[in-house]
Amino acid sequence: MPNAALLPRLARALLAGESGVDAIVARASQALQTRTTAKNASALMGRNWRWLRPLARRYVDAFAGELRPRKREVVEFLLRDAGFQRAWAKYFDELHIAHWLGDPQRMQPVPAAAEWPLPVIETDSDLAAWFNLTQDELLWFADLKGLTYNNKNSRLGHYHYRVLTKKSGTIRLIEAPKSRLKALQRRVLAEILDKIPPHRAVNGFVPGRSARTFVGPHVARDVVLKMDLRDFFPSISGVRIQTIFRMLGYPESVADLLGGICTNAVSRRVWDESAGEVDPQRLWEARSLHSRPHLPQGAPTSPALANICAYRVDCRLAGLARAAGAEYTRYADDLAFSGGRDFKRGVERFSIQVAAILMEEGFTVNHRKTRIMRRGVRQRLAGMVANEHANVPREDFDRLKATLHNCVRLGAESQNRTGHRRFRAHLDGRVGWMEFVNPAKGRRLRAIFDRIAW
User: Which residues are 380's β-sheet partners?
Assistant: First the structure.
């Protein structure tokens, strides 16, 4: 069995190859010689072995057309390679490492990402400088070893937490990054993630798209199918996020650190404070889901990363919808499909196919929220009614109008029955939503809102 020192170094030599077998062989040859031939030589292990070129070819064949492998994957390849094992057994006494000159990996994006204007960051020190951090600070914020997970002092953590319980009994955890980490995440969003074009079906958290563009394709259709993804953000693991950054071309160590900046694992102490307020089974499920690195709901990078992770499923669902004569759009974890008579006849079977695709791609459908809405019932999506044209539900408009009138007559505090700390901002937001969906109705409500004596 090859020793522990040789395999990672040979793997690193193979990973350093950028342009095919010859480049890999040239670099690996330097890594596999036994004596120093020049001051700048790499790890030296003998001579230019005859078995080296076939090994490099097998390596290229094994990983051709795939994302650049991690170092551990190359080590596993070497351990499984019969030719390398024979060479190791035959030349055991001659193979050793004198010293190692480690060339950093270069940016190597997948073909689709080659033209995207991404910043070139090839080493950990480059990343620290890009963030204006020391390397120790970078390691602290990325927290790849989970040092803050078991720390009992919440002041040393990078997030503020708020546990919310929905009417259905399910739990939502808001993970708001503290100011310094949020600044790092915003830079990742602005200079890396915003450079990646979204799928045309995505309407959430994309400039120029909104809930209206999400609902628009489904207006006045014979049938609308609405589906919901369960635990959308926390179900996306830290490993998937690191893979995204590797796909963009960043070397393994840089991709891991960027993934650490954008993900979080929640300590058990966060849940202990809410243990008596929620259902124990629900609490256990939420705690298990959030205990591993995941996309935090509350980080500025999470929506963009979730959209990127869902790109493949968006492609598959758009293709499935096209084959069924339907339209498909997605707004975060809300999926909508709509079509005419042909689609209406097979919509139940279609929903099963959608659920199967989502499961294959690592997502789960919240079946309790699946709705098949035919023309004769209210077709409601993203808080709008889509039967004839996108509009606010009549009862929502009437209820808000009555609340505003009562605020004018009786005072705002009399209507703050749920104890909103920022009741004025709350009402302002609801009026703004009405203005966004139906400008004419929104102007009427805004006129009433402006008469309230705050």
Answer: 385
* Other C-beta atoms lying within 10 Å of the C-beta of residue 63: 16
Reading the block at residue 450, the tokens are 């402006």
The reported pTM is: 0.84
How confident is the chain (454 residues) per 10-residue block, as mean pLDDT? Answer: 62 61 50 35 51 84 84 87 87 63 76 94 96 96 85 79 80 93 98 96 94 96 96 95 96 96 91 71 87 95 97 97 97 97 95 97 94 94 92 93 94 89 93 94 95 92
* Cα-based distances in Å from 207 to 187, 248, 296: 17, 21, 21
Let me know: does 173 contact 287? Beta carbons within 8 Å.
no
Task: Provide the greatest CA pair distance for the chain.
Answer: 94
Give the residue from 358, 356, 324 showing the smallest Cα distance to 339. 324
What gap in Å lies between CA 323 and CA 346, rounded to an integer?
A: 12
Query: To which residue do tokens 């319980």 refer?
Result: 165
Task: Give the Cβ contact number of residue 158 at 10 Å.
Answer: 20
- The per-residue pLDDT for 293 is 95
Cα(47)–Cα(41) distance, integer angstroms: 13
Alpha helix locations (H) across 178-267?
Answer: 179-191, 211-215, 238-247, 252-262
Token pair 């606010």 is found at: 392
User: Taking the alpha carbons of 126, 127, 131, 132 in that order, is the dihedral positive or negative?
Assistant: negative
Q: At what angle do helices 423-437 and 439-449 cross, to 10 degrees?
A: 160
Neighbour tally for 263: CB within 10 Å: 26
- The answer to whether residues 158 and 181 touch, using CB atoms and an 8 Å cutoff, is yes
- In 3-state terms, what secondary structure has residue 202? strand
Q: d(Cα 314, Cα 443) in Å, to the nearest integer?
A: 37
- Half-sphere exposure for 392 (CA within 13 Å, toward CB): 22
171: three-class secondary structure by DSSP: strand
